[in-house]
Structures are given as C-alpha cells and as structure tokens.
Automatic annotation (TrEMBL):
Keywords: Glycosyltransferase, Membrane, Transferase, Transmembrane, Transmembrane helix. One of its GO terms (molecular function) is glycosyltransferase activity. This is Glycosyltransferase. It is a multi-pass membrane protein. Its EC number is 2.4.-.-.
Length: 394
C-alpha cells in the first residue's frame, strides 16, 4: 500500500490546500466517536493555522460506529468517514485513511480518548519547526501512563526491549516506539510501500519511510472510559512477526537483497521451512523403520518419510513463505497445481542433491559431511528459485 504524492500545483489550481489530515481508526467505538470528533474539531479550529480534515476509518464495526460517525458529517464539515467492509486491522486502516487524505502532514490518533488531544498542536508545531515526524511519547518529560500495574508496565517495556534487540535501527530512534499517536510529513512517506502488518504502524513508517528528524512530545496515556481495548495475544505475535519482517527487508539486509535482486527474507523463510522438513523426515524415518516401531524396510520408509516431509514443507511454504502470493488463491484446483509442481521440483532437487554429493565428494573434498552440506545448499537454492518462478510465480 502506498501513499500518493500530492499534485505539485494544488495551491495554484485553487483547490484545497490542507495542512493536516488526521486519521482516527475505530473499531467498536460507538460511545466515544461523537466526543472525539467534537473535541478534536474544537481544538483544531482554535489552534491550527490552516485547514485540516478528520478521517474516521471504521472497519464495519458491529456496533455501527460508522453510522454514528456519518451522522456527524453534517455538523462537522471537516469530517470524512471511510467504512471498510473488506479489510480489517489497525495498521491497514491508518494507511488506507492516509491514502485518501489530502493534507501535507498526515497524523493518527486513537478514537477512544486515551490520547489527550491537547498534544496535537505541539506535534504539529514540531513539524512546522522542521521535524519530519513528531511522536507523542509516554517516556519523555511530561509523559507517562495513568494507572498501570507493575505487570503491565513490565510487559510494555519487555516488548520494547525485544524490539530494540531485533530492530535497533528503528526502535532506537524514539523513546516510545509503541505509540499510535504521531504525525509525519507526507513527503517522508509518499511513494514508499507500507505493509499493513500488526498494530504498530509507527514502526513501519520509521522503518520504511524517509524520516530524518524526529521530535517527541510527552503525553499521559489516559485510561479508557467507554468501550474496551481490542488488544489480544494475537497482537503480540503480530508484533514479533512485524519486527522480524522489518529486520529482514529494511536497512542493510534490505539493501543487499535489492542490490543482488534476490529475496533474502523469503529465502530465509524457505530455509527454515526446509529445516522443519528435516525434523519431520527424521521423525518419520524413525517411526517407520526402527526395529522397535514399525520396522519397515529402509528404502520404503525413506520414500514415505521424504514424501511426508515434502507435504509438510509445501503446507508451510504456501501458508507462510509465499503467503502474499497464495492468499486469495485457495481454490482447490490452484492449490493442487502448486502442490504438484512443488512436489515434482523437490524430487528433481533430491536427484540433484545426490548428484552434487557424489561429484563434490569424489572430485573436490573427501569429507562426506562437508560434501553433503554443499549438496544440500545447492539443492535448496534450486528448490527455492524454481519454486519461486514456477509454483508461486513471484
Ligand atoms: N479501523 C480499525 N480496525 N480500528 C481499530 C482496530 C481495527 O482492527 N483495532 C483497533 N482499532 C482502533 C480502536 O478503536 C482505537 O481507536 C485504536 O484503534 C486503538 O485501539 P485500542 O484497542 O484502544 O488500543 P490500546 O489502547 O490498547 O493500544 C494502544 O497502545 C498504544 C500505547 O501502547 C495503541 O494502539 C496506540 O495507539 C497507543 O498509543
Ligand atoms: Mn485504547
């Protein structure tokens, strides 16, 4: 998903010249939305010198938040409402809102009044003074959380520490990388492809955008009064997934991947799946051939074990390594076609594996384990590249 550039002549053309577009993502915020819109409008009317727009992006909330929001557009002229029926998720909601936004500065604020609106003018002020991004932070002067238990603080800091270890280049740049309350210049993210994974859109923007100077403004994260949080354990998993993905596709690794025109992150996933296949193969071989279990002949056991490992690898690769390609192509026929191609390519890979092992062992290194490692590497690269082009057609 990409944010478009503004046409260069918006001002001359006499069309709108909007300073700030503020996205309010909502899911089941029926009891909050009216308050949020009225408080934000009053504040922005008074404090900012320039036009603004408020964009509510609601994911078709069952409590009909979108309907309440739409009913407010009469009274609040700067309000627009996007009701999404085919997509869900906080990050993608924010990006979708920005895609439809017209402002030179793009911002986001929660729709549950946990983010104090007074901070908005300071955030905007920081950008007008030259920052590319301004982040509301709980961890600088003037910041904090209201009534969090020790355990909750611990979890929050733990998540931040984990992020710092996996992705220091991004998390090291701000004191509160979990913040969902910030603004960024459109120029800093226009034309950049943002992936809508997870809950933490700020990481994505810092990780992929062209953000140089970042300002921070302290704020106290208020308690929720109405409605409830949508955070579940899934968000923690998404978070780790997001960190790893950014680690592999941005920064130095991302650059290498681009320069050699090779999908390093995908290859690593493929390799990990391959390792899981080795475990499956070994386990099956044991269960089938060991004298204490089924005691089948070795060759027959190996053929069955190998085939089960291939099925295992296909399932993981289809659901994970190539998830972006196979999603939406789950029709039985398409799926079977991918599976048969994968199966065939891996069998050819096995033949290649045996060939390389013999060649390397007999002609290059008289060490069967090193020779085997080389053979496995060659077969893996073969399996990956050919499946990439033929089975998933990347
Ligand atoms: N459109 C849409 N789709 N909005 C969503 C979705 C979704 O799937 N999930 C949550 N939201 C909206 C909520 O309605 C709310 O306005 C906002 O996103 C934040 O969601 P909460 O569930 O209230 O999150 P929180 O308060 O626990 O978490 C917040 O933690 C940070 C501080 O650690 C974050 O989301 C941050 O914004 C916040 O700064
Ligand atoms: Mn909240």
């Amino acid at each position: 998903l990409q944010i478009p550039e503004l046409p260069p002549n918006t001002v001359d053309a006499g069309s709108e010249n909007i300073l700030l577009s503020l996205v309010i993502p909502t899911y089941k915020e029926r009891d909050n939305i009216k308050n949020v819109v009225s408080i934000l409008s009053r504040l922005l009317d008074e404090s900012i010198l320039g036009d603004y727009e408020l964009i509510v992006v609601d994911d078709d909330s069952p409590d009909r938040t979108w309907e309440v929001a739409e009913s407010l557009t009469q009274e609040y002229r700067q309000l627009r409402v996007m009701r999404r029926q085919n997509e869900r998720g906080l990050s993608s909601a924010v990006i979708r809102g920005w895609q439809g936004a017209r402002g030179r500065v793009l911002g986001v604020i929660d729709g549950d009044l946990q983010h104090p609106p007074e901070v908005l003018s300071q955030l905007l002020g920081a950008i007008q003074k030259g920052a590319d991004m301004a982040v509301a932070s709980r961890h600088v002067d003037g910041g904090g959380v209201s009534k969090w238990s020790f355990f909750r603080r611990f979890l929050s800091r733990g998540a931040q520490l984990l992020g710092l270890i996996i992705l220091p280049d991004v998390l090291g740049r701000v004191s509160d990388p979990m913040s969902g309350y910030f603004m960024v210049r459109r120029n800093s993210i226009a034309g950049v492809t943002l992936n809508p994974v997870g809950y933490k859109i700020l990481l994505e923007v810092i990780g992929r955008g062209k953000v140089r100077e970042i300002a921070e403004v302290g704020y106290v994260f208020c308690e929720r009064v109405k409605g409830e949080s949508k955070v579940t354990s899934k968000q923690y998993i998404d978070y780790i997934h997001h960190l790893v993905r950014l680690r592999l596709t941005t920064g130095r690794l991302g650059k290498i991947s681009q320069r050699i025109n090779f999908p390093v992150a995908r290859f690593l996933r493929f390799g990990l799946v391959g390792l899981s296949g080795v475990v499956v193969d070994m386990t099956m071989l044991y269960l089938l051939s060991d004298p204490s279990t089924l005691a089948l002949p070795l060759t027959r056991s190996k053929i069955i074990a190998g085939e089960i490992a291939i099925v295992n690898n296909f399932l993981w690769n289809d659901a994970w390594t190539f998830a972006d390609v196979s999603s939406g192509q789950h029709e039985w026929g398409q799926w079977m076609k991918r599976f048969l191609k994968f199966n065939f390519i891996c069998l050819v890979g096995l033949v290649l594996n045996v060939l390389v092992l013999n060649i390397v062992f007999n002609l290059i290194i008289q060490n069967r384990y090193i020779a085997n490692l080389i053979a496995i590497a060659v077969a893996t690269v073969w399996n990956f590249s050919v499946n990439l082009k033929l089975s998933w057609r990347v």
